[in-house]
């Protein structure tokens, strides 16, 4: 038994680890509440058992690190620093996108190198210097502290106990057990902001480990999906354009963080950065895209545009690419529809191919080939520190379309306008902004310069479309508004104007006649049927269903609902019935048996 007898030093260390667990939980909750310590204390007063439970979880995490690593000090210090980094990541994500950190976000750790480039300039040199000094001080302290010797049997016992408690906590919380409920825990998966603020980071994060994208609708069965398929299959086609002489090429150009900065009230620009767009938008179908995201989560906008499914039905914070599609073998999309009609399907993204698991998701959607940054070594960057320019991306897309001997669907996701908006990253700023506070002036002018470069790339695209022999239609839209400093939007009065914070520019160009009917404001899920109608192509039953939903709810988002006559606060029975059909089919395709794949595509 002497092997299991703890020493006084070990006793003091365990007490220190327990205290460390409470400190870590306090810190990570503060990071969730904008580092407002009074808010943390108020939360602890209302949810003290959740605070105690989360703190004990961190205690056992630190204990596990202590028992596994040879040095009893290095283990808990390593665990402590990892949790601190987790809290910082949560704080940064919330300040950038307004969303907390989710378990699936950690899948981006594999892209640490690319993330460091994306976040370059967001962390001050002073903060980096202080972090280096703190790490050095900790290392020095580790060598000065007295050694604690723990026999192997006791290490194994501590490891087993801590591992068991950690696993038990995860099962308890993710399974919403009676004991978890007795601690005042409720998994509010449908509203993740409330989930994190009410339950605390530890419980909310753990509860999301086993979260489905959406819950099974009442009445789900093969018969219910067959009835929906039959209903929409019987509807006539309603093409708004004449069929092209031959199958047209289709180009999707989803532009990173692009919106019209001239919409910001109170800001006066020395020149119009979007001269081409503002001149051409009345002569071609154009309008606004109602993005389901703000400041980030590009993959979710892409998910809607390619699959025709809506983020409206999914749990808050969901990223289907990360959580579900990467595990599937196939999923119907505009890609699979067009491939059945003889198209080749290409994807182009001038950045790391593994971001959001695109290299694994694109084959599931049916793409034949994916061109990423590694394949574009000679592509133009406006400065060495910048991303591949939008014009360079357009040039590559045009090259692919001209080289194709079959109708081609090409989906392109750009990178040029990604934050941070560091002055000079895309060349000198040529437009000045008045009416913006001095601390944000360089940032806003840099972003405006980026949009000017995109506008020029779009003008170039229009000219190049005329040189492609095959009829070609190009759909351009911004994925979400940029992650500018929050004060810029606050001064513009947009904090309560959710529609304005989610509307990006949408424009369709072609080298054949597609008319100039305005598009209004559309959700990305409707882009597939919209471009099919403009090019005179027949709609599969799934797209016919989307057209019915679009007629009633052209803007479908958790942030704002837009009907045919403007914003909505309530749904009619007809609108709710359409959404019930839509939800049933989406559940079937993502989480169910996939009956609709054969019935509606």
UniProtKB/TrEMBL annotation:
Q: What is its main location?
A: membrane
Pfam families found in the cross-reference section: Sulfatase
From what superkingdom does this record's organism come?
Answer: Bacteria
Kindly list the residue ranges recorded as spanning the membrane: 12-28, 48-65, 72-91, 122-143, 155-175
User: What cellular-component terms does GO give this entry?
Assistant: plasma membrane
Which pathway does it operate in?
Cell wall biogenesis; lipoteichoic acid biosynthesis
Any idea which UniProt keywords this protein has? Cell membrane, Membrane, Transmembrane, Transmembrane helix
Give the signal peptide range: none
Q: Where in the cell is it found?
A: Cell membrane
Ranges for domain Sulfatase N-terminal come to 248-535
Keyword Transport tagged: no
**UniProt membrane topology term:** Multi-pass membrane protein
InterPro entries assigned to the protein according to its UniProt record, in alphabetical order: Alkaline_phosphatase_core_sf, OpgB/LTA_synthase_biosynth, Sulfatase_N
Kindly provide the name given to this protein in its UniProt entry. Answer: Putative membrane protein
What is the species of this protein? Paenibacillus riograndensis SBR5
């Amino acid at each position: 038994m002497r092997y299991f007898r703890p020493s006084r030093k070990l006793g003091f260390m365990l007490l220190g680890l327990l205290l460390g667990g409470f400190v870590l939980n306090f810190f990570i909750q503060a990071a969730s509440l904008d580092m407002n310590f009074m808010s943390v204390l108020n939360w602890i007063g209302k949810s003290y058992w959740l605070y105690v439970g989360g703190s004990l979880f961190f205690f056992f995490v630190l204990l596990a690190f202590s028992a596994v690593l040879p040095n009893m000090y290095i283990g808990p210090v390593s665990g402590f620093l990892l949790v601190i980094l987790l809290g910082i990541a949560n704080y940064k994500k919330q300040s950038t996108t307004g969303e907390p950190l989710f378990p699936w976000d950690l899948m981006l750790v594999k892209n640490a190198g690319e993330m460091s480039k994306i976040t370059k300039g967001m962390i001050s040199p002073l903060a980096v210097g202080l972090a280096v000094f703190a790490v050095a001080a900790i290392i020095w302290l580790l060598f000065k502290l007295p050694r604690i010797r723990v026999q192997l049997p006791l290490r194994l016992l501590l490891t087993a106990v801590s591992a068991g408690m950690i696993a038990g906590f995860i099962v308890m919380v993710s399974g919403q057990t009676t004991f978890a409920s007795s601690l005042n825990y409720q998994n509010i998966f449908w509203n993740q902001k409330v989930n994190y603020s009410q339950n605390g980071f530890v419980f909310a994060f753990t509860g999301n480990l086993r979260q489905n994208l959406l819950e099974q609708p009442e009445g789900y069965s093969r018969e219910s999906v067959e009835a929906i398929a039959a209903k929409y299959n019987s509807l006539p086609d309603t093409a708004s354009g004449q069929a092209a002489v031959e199958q047209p090429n289709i180009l999707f150009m989803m532009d990173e963080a692009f919106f019209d900065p001239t919409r910001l009230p109170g800001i006066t620009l020395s020149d119009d950065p979007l001269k081409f767009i503002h001149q051409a938008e009345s002569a071609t179908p154009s309008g606004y895209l109602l993005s389901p995201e703000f400041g980030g989560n590009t993959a979710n906008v892409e998910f809607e545009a390619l699959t025709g499914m809506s983020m409206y039905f999914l749990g808050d914070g969901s990223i289907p690419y990360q959580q579900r599609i990467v595990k599937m073998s196939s999923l119907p999309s505009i890609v699979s529809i067009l491939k059945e009609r003889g198209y080749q399907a290409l994807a182009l993204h001038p950045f790391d191919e593994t971001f959001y698991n695109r290299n694994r998701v694109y084959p599931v959607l049916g793409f034949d080939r994916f061109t990423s940054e590694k394949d574009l070594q000679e592509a133009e960057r406006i400065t060495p520190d910048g991303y591949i320019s939008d014009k360079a991306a357009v040039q590559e897309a045009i090259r692919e379309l001209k080289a194709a001997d079959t109708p081609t669907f090409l989906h392109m996701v750009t990178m040029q306008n990604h934050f941070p908006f560091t002055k000079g990253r895309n060349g000198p700023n040529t437009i000045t902004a008045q009416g913006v506070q001095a601390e944000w002036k360089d940032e806003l002018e840099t972003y405006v310069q980026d949009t000017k470069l995109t506008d020029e790339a779009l003008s170039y695209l229009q000219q190049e479309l005329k040189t492609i022999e095959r009829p070609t239609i190009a759909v351009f839209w911004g994925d979400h508004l940029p992650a500018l400093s929050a004060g810029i939007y606050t001064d513009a009065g947009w904090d309560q104007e959710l529609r304005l914070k989610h509307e990006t520019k949408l424009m369709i160009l072609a080298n054949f006649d597609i008319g100039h009917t305005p598009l209004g404001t559309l959700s990305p899920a409707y882009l597939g049927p919209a471009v099919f109608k403009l090019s005179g192509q027949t709609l599969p039953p799934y797209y016919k269903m989307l057209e019915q939903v679009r007629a009633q709810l052209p803007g479908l988002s958790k942030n704002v609902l837009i009907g045919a006559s403007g914003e909505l606060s309530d749904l009619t029975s007809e609108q709710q019935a359409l959404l019930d059909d839509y939800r049933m089919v989406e559940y079937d395709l993502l989480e169910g048996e996939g009956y609709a794949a054969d019935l509606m595509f």
